[in-house]
Amino acid sequence: MEASIFSPTLIKGLTDKIYDRRKAAALEIERLVRENEDSNERITQIVDALVQEFVYSNNPYARYGGLIGLAATSIALGPVGSSGVSRYLDIIVPPILSCFSNQDQKVRYYACESMYNIAKVAKGEVLRYFNSIFDALCKLSADSEISVKNGAELLDRLIKDIVSELSTTYVSPYSEPYNSIEAGGNKLDTPSSLPRNTAFSLPRFIPLLSQRIYVRNSAARQFLVSWMCVLDSIPDLELVSFLPEFLDGLIRCLNDVSEDVRVAASGLLQDFLNEIKEAAAARTVQIKQQQQALLKRKEGSIKTADEDTTTTTTAVTEDNAEEQDTTATEEQEEAIQADDTKEDEQDEKSLVDSENDGHGKGTYVPGQGVIVQYGKIVEILVPHLSSSEEDIQKTALLWINAFIEIAQNVIIQYTPEIIKAVLPSLAHPVTPIRNIALETNQNLQRLVLETPIQASSSSSTPPEPAASKSDPSGGNTKKKSLMVSSATTAAAQQQDPFDYQATVANLRLQFLNQNEETRVASLDWLLMLHKKAPNKILASDDGTFPALLKTLSDPSEDVVRRDLQLLAQISSYSDHDYFRSFIMSLLSLFSTDRRLLETRGSLIIRQLCMSLDPERIYCAIADILEQDEDLEFASIMIQNLNIILITSSELTDLRKRLRNLEHRDNQRLFNALYRSWCHNAVSAFSLCLLSQVYEHAANMLQIFAELEITVNMLIQVDKLVQLLESPVFTYLRLQLLEPEKYPYLFKCLYGILMLLPQSSAFSTLRNRLSSVSSLGFLHVLPKATPATSSTATSTSTDRKGSKSSSTKVEEINTIKYSDLLTHFKSVQSRHEKQRRQCKLTYN
């Protein structure tokens, strides 16, 4: 081994166990360096000897002495001059960095002390090693030894001061930035205002930060957040432009066990959001100013071109006026287009320069020139919308809600994913989160509603205009048609940023959510989307229609109402086949789920009648039930429909039409309903009473005698008597005072009375009839007539008295009551046969 350049006494002092003696030896090294500061070779030998013989020694005390010696060497060299410490940092700093990870706690402490002294002397030059120093300090911030942590904190504060002061201005004269820790990575988008040749390089630091940000230790997280606060406070660095690289890890710091970390991370995130808002506001103002300037320039160009055209037109002769006009016009258009192109390029260039020039001219505008990668940020935020951590979820919701206002074009693309995460939060147990989710949902709905629907690529190209008389060759027309064609092609290539099908699919998933608020909100979304773009929503094969039908069984009445409103809205935009398919599916659901029919049947039918034409609904149901093979279900369904028809306020107009059978449309309505109402005898009878077809109703009572009077039938008759006392049948009770005009009405009511057993309904009806019969009207009761007799004259007598004209009689006669009575017998005989078969089966 070669002899050391240090004297034995100096070597002994550097390796001594006592700190004061090592310090005295370090002062001797400092004196030695000062004596040889003009000899670069000698200084290099001193540094190499300290590194190889002491810092890399196995003797711990030698390491302590070596680290102190390197610090003393740096102090002796000083910050400036040809022999300053800057030119020797490449051989001084790496050995110290290696000691930061040494197992000996004192080695780590003395490494911090040594680096502190070096950084204090080197100032900005130490920024070439920022990544390595930062990585070491990040690890030391979580050190178990208090002394090491204290030393690291002192060094950390010094490096922060240096970065704050010199990061954007100091340029190293010696070498490129030294980043041994950095391992490449994707190229980052950086604003042009960011300094490119400084010793501190933010683009080179960001990959390291993006790795370290996922650390779990609270002390390390506190260290990272504090550094991000420092870097964010330096205006020229524009840390927010690199936000997507570390945003996810920063958000995860909100669930740290340490409250200090959570508070610091929350405050930093709020600062970033404020900067993004400022950048968006500055961008909006700048675009508006640029558009105004561009508009003024174009107006000036057009005005100048018009003056030139006038001068040219005056100068030409009459013989070639048309040719000269055409040429001048073409030259004018080309000149205007060339000027506009140059102006646009200049405007764009000036816009880019004004945005990106961090040291530009004019007044400083907060947020100007900041690159905000909205798409990447939203992509990071969306998964956190469903986080189980309240602070994380709340922060993500706040950011998304803010982005709806400032980044609409980006948010609209992520709407399906945002809806999937936001809607379940509408029922969050924490009130602030629930309120923010509600506001976000409302703002997002408004954004989607205001977003125009993109024209499909299959849209036809406008026809080419014919050549004008002044241009027989069609030259100008050809140019215009080419421009129109290119514009149409460009428009066709634009895709709709809002994905309707993905949104509907995610909304359909919310039908299974356990929270009522979420299910209601999903249906509100579908209602809005279908109203906005009915052709793009709810394709017949996407599974939405069956899901909507299944939702009718939802326990929430609000959900069912909106579901019915949506189904009605779909039907109103659909053809007859789709509507009939919907009614058949609804009846099939009622048939399989009788409990739904009992509990929600009335609500469903009434809501549909409120949203759609009641006649269309009733006629469609009647037509389907008339051919239904399940006679029991048909009877139950008709019974429910009849009660709704008589009592529901939504069907008032339909009842008025049935009471006025003098018009052919009303007669067709009565015929359609009656043929299906025959599945239930009491319902068919009440339909006749409602329509004031009293003679036909009286003839039906004779057939009742041939039917098996079941308990269910008596219960229905009992309900009918109660309905006769309701306001709906006020007109019928008043007609009892005119027996000459309505003789068969008495026969109908007395027939019901004879069907009833001794019950409260019997007493009610008997009292009603007794109050009329006491006036001596019974003598006007009609004689018994055959069931198949013609009803033209008597019906006209029953309805409206003697006011019926011959035309009205002819119209009323179009209802073939004898055929209807025959149909009633046929249907009831089928029911009788089925009941007998059921009894035999049970027996």
UniProtKB/TrEMBL annotation:
Ranges annotated as spanning the membrane: none
Subcellular location: Endomembrane system
GO biological process, one term: phosphatidylinositol biosynthetic process
A Gene Ontology term for the protein's cellular component: endosome membrane
Repeat (HEAT) residue spans along the chain: 92-128
Record SUPFAM superfamilies: ARM repeat (SSF48371)
Ranges for domain Vacuolar protein 14 C-terminal Fig4-binding: 595-772
Predominant location category: membrane
Compositional bias ranges of the Basic and acidic residues kind: 348-360
InterPro entries associated with the record: ARM-like (IPR011989), ARM-type_fold (IPR016024), HEAT_type_2 (IPR021133), Vac14 (IPR026825), VAC14_Fig4p-bd (IPR021841)
Entry coiled-coil feature ranges: 22-49
PANTHER family: PROTEIN VAC14 HOMOLOG, TAX1 BINDING PROTEIN-RELATED
Family, similarity comment: Belongs to the VAC14 family.
UniProt protein name: Vacuolar protein 14 C-terminal Fig4-binding domain-containing protein
Organism, scientific name: Mucor lusitanicus CBS 277.49
